[in-house]
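Pasting as-is:
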Amino acid sequence: MSNSKKSQFKYILLLNLIIGIHNIINYSINGHLTALIIGIINIGVWVILRDMRLIPVILKNINK
């Protein structure tokens, strides 16, 4: 993966984290269960992919 794609992917992951935090705050204010579920998934994706070690494995499995 090229450096520009890596930096774009990092920005996408950062946006994913921000959206996750926003959804969890939305759940605490409004009580929408779907906002909590989406927020947990967004933050979970950020936690799993933040170190960028799993990206080559995922891309290899997609390209098969």
